[in-house]
Amino acid sequence: MQRRFGNLDDVWPAGLSRRLGAMLYDTFLVAAIWLLVAGLHLLVARHLLGISAEQVGASPLWGLSLQLLLLVSAFAFFAFFWVRGGMTLGMQAWRLRVQTPDGRSITLTQAAVRFVVACLSIAAFGLGYLWILFDAERRSWSDIASGTLVVALPKPAK
Question: What is the DSSP string of 79-141?
């Protein structure tokens, strides 16, 4: 069930610099998750299945399975936070939230579209995020494709 966010009059479209700050923060978190996933992948291969280190490193199957696990774990990280509360940990630090245009949390389908298009945007040398500078509503390619917005939140009252 989608959650309805409050204080919709107090938010504004997020700019590129805040998004990049949140992305940098989340990159460190995803890297930590990837270290854990890679360690578990190696643990399963070496100790549970008894495969030698040379076979794990040389086998295209093990390389592909690790890449798939890394991709799935990154998606799980972002989807969990986006769908649950609209903010990853990096977005919380930079006071950003992803939401639908009517102020609701996004769906799992929207999160999947956001993730895929975000990967493509980064692969296109960041053009999908530089698009924010030219879009009147400050939307990236992933915002446009998924029908979502990233908004900046005001500082909490003291």
Answer: HHHHHHHS--HHHHHTTEEEE-TTSBPPPHHHHHHHHHHHHHHHHTTTHHHHGGGT-TT---H
